[in-house]
Amino acid sequence: MVTRALDVVLLGPPGAGKGTQAKCLAAALSLLHISTGDLLREEVAKNSPLGQEAASFMQRGELVPDDLVAKMLLARLYTQQGLAGCVFDGYPRTQAQAELLDQLLAELGRRVDVAVYLEVPDGEVVARLGGRRSCPNCGAVYHVQTKPPAREGLCDVCGSGLVVREDDREEVIRQRLSVYRSHTEPLLELYEKRGVLRRVDGLGAVDAIFARLKEAVKGSVAR
Ligand code: AMP
């Protein structure tokens, strides 16, 4: 039971399962799930000016410039003031983003209470993302080996044709991993120094990982 705002950052390489776990955690603790990747994909799908600017960075597996992402994040954060807190999925990804997040949360009288690092080796990342199939209509995610849809190539939820995300192609996956290593991995040290970093083994079944994640977060709520 959360009695004050709880803000959780999920860190980990692309394909670590942050999106899946963030959704589960947000639902279990009544937190708002903020995925900057999902928000950006929505803008791209709407073909908004922001989406048009972001699309080419995303297709190449590069980071979208901080100011564009910040604009979206702000809009999302301020529409839910008064709620129990957020699970940040895919944000922050750079030192500057981490500083901005601290500042925004401080203005709301909050802070990053816990940063969870979902640990997954590189080989597993490539296997997971290479087999990932996504529904462009409802956002459901499948995997050709580990979570195939009931009818091949079709979404179980809405029946739309499944696609390989543009940035799940192998060369783009490698680029995303390299960007992660150079820009995002250093944030582990930042949160470690603050004493809020928790490491969670990201291998295994979704439920088993979620159980470990909940334990890690629960320990931090009691801080
Ligand atoms: P994700 O679904 O989190 O893997 O994000 C997909 C893509 O969106 C990334 O490869 C980036 O191009 C972009 N993106 C998502 N979040 C951010 C962020 N916090 N900063 C910059 N770019 C981002």
Task: Please provide a written account of the structure.
This protein has 223 residues and is an alpha/beta fold. The chain is 49% helix and 13% strand. It contains 9 helices and 7 strands, in the order βαβαααβαβαββααβα. The strands form 2 sheets. A 5-stranded parallel beta sheet has the order 2-3-1-4-7, with helices on both faces. Strands 5-6 form a two-stranded antiparallel ribbon. Helix 1 (18-29) packs across helix 9, helix 2 packs across helix 3 and helix 6 packs across helix 7 (170-184). The radius of gyration is 17 Å and the shape is globular. It starts with 7 loop residues before the first strand and ends with a helix. The mean pLDDT is 91. Adenosine monophosphate (AMP) binds at residues 14, 36-37, 40, 57-58, 61-64, 69, 90-91, 93, 97, 167, 176. Adenosine monophosphate binds at residues 14, 36-37, 40, 57-58, 61-64, 69, 90-91, 93, 97, 167, 176.
Any descriptors?
223 residues, alpha/beta, five-stranded parallel β-sheet, two-stranded antiparallel ribbon, 9 helices, 7 strands, binds adenosine monophosphate
How are the secondary structure elements laid out?
Elements: E1 8-11, H1 18-29, E2 32-35, H2 36-46, H3 49-60, H4 66-78, E3 86-89, H5 95-107, E4 114-119, H6 122-130, E5 132-134, E6 141-143, H7 170-184, H8 186-194, E7 197-201, H9 206-221
Parallel strand pairs: 1-3, 1-4, 2-3, 4-7
Antiparallel strand pairs: 5-6
Adenosine monophosphate is lined by residues 14, 36-37, 40, 57-58, 61-64, 69, 90-91, 93, 97, 167, 176.
